[in-house]
Design goal:
single chain; FAD/NAD(P)-binding domain; 2 domains; 6 helices; 19 strands; 22% helix; elongated; binds NADP nicotinamide-adenine-dinucleotide phosphate
Length: 308
């Protein structure tokens, strides 16, 4: 198994929740270790410009904000392991964690591993990832230059990304399964008034087809049952997220929404294990709410460790 290193507090995940927890825990002199996972800074990196994080009236790049969080956490002595968790054992104390390169024990944990995007689960989706199917406008927007593309979903993410993609694409058609959008009024107004954005309501994608790259979508109108072949040069899917709770199933209580159940102190069903950000929140999902949860989890973890 290799060397086992003991820490008072280990934070799992390096998005806004994990890094905010790290800033607070480091300032409480807990010398936290952040095990980053595969996606450094989390989903904040998928947003080109964040316009609603206080302190940045002109907006700030997602990656840039992540880097500033990391820098600030390091100023106060946070250590980082750029590694991924394989298993966590919460049945005995201290808790045991195994990563690809080693093992750790910890007196307290903050789980901030976020969530991952949902898939359509239709034929062709998997096969065309990277060849016209994408889940990230910031990452793949450039490839849509002068193309006629589609965005699936009717929430804030779908509209925000559709608006971003208009910078490159010739046209962006939003396919939504209902005839009313879920997104907020500001984004809805911007999208409805954008000359490059069109809507295909009451419609679902049944299949994604093409030779080398995406060429057409098979779309069904859910009201009439009519099925049509829609030419497409790219499809971006933004239909919500699934919290990354796999490692904790059977070890921690979950909510009906699939997030880790926490109390008002960010504590999970296991004493000494706290959770923050999208692994414990499927509702707000904002950088600032995740950061706030991270700070709160670190304060609670500090009190817990002091009580031991
Ligand atoms: P969301 O609000 O859950 O919206 C998901 C959308 O995908 C909904 O329109 C839903 O349709 C649709 N959908 C779900 N499953 C589907 C399926 N299998 N096939 C087709 N369509 C499907 O997710 P989100 O847009 O990622 O937003 C999540 C949270 O983050 C929200 O609270 C949102 O406000 C927040 N957010 C905010 C901002 C911002 O403030 N600028 C930006 C991004 C996200 P129905 O509407 O029919 O359910």
């Amino acid at each position: 198994m290799g060397i086992i290193e003991h820490r008072r507090l280990i934070i799992l995940g390096a998005g806004p929740a994990g890094l905010s927890a790290a800033i607070y825990a480091a300032r409480a002199e807990l010398k936290p270790l952040v095990i980053t996972g595969m996606v450094l800074y989390g989903q904040v990196t998928l947003t080109n410009t964040i316009e609603n994080y206080p302190g940045f009236p002109k907006g700030i790049g997602g990656i840039e904000l992540g880097q500033l969080f990391e820098e600030q956490a390091k100023v106060f002595g946070t250590e980082f392991a750029y590694d991924e968790i394989q298993s966590v054992d919460l049945s005995a104390r201290p808790f045991t964690l195994t990563t690809y390169s080693g093992s750790y024990t910890a007196d307290a944990l903050i789980l901030a591993m976020g969530s991952r995007h949902k898939k359509l689960n239709v034929p062709g989706e998997e096969a065309f990832v990277g060849r016209g199917v994408s889940y990230c406008g910031t990452c793949d927007g450039w490839f849509t230059k002068d193309k006629n593309i589609h965005v699936v979903g009717g929430g804030d993410s779908a509209l925000e990304e559709a608006l971003f993609l208009t910078r490159f694409a010739r046209s962006v058609t939003i396919i939504h399964r209902r005839d009313a959008l879920r997104a907020g009024a500001i984004l809805e107004n911007r999208a409805r008034n954008h000359p490059k954005i069109h809507f295909l309501f009451d419609s679902v994608v049944k299949e994604i087809r093409g030779q080398e790259v995406v060429e057409e979508l098979i779309v069904e109108n859910v009201k009439t049952g009519e099925v049509s072949q829609v030419p497409s040069q790219g499809v971006f899917v933004f239909i919500g997220h699934t919290p990354n709770t796999q490692t904790f199933i059977g070890q921690l209580e979950l909510t009906p929404a699939g997030t880790i159940r926490i109390d008002e102190f960010m504590e999970t069903s296991q004493k000494g294990v706290f959770a923050a950000g999208e692994i414990a929140d499927s509702h707000f999902r904002q950088v600032i709410t995740s950061a706030g949860m991270g700070a709160a989890a670190a304060i609670s973890a500090t009190h817990y460790l002091e009580s031991l």
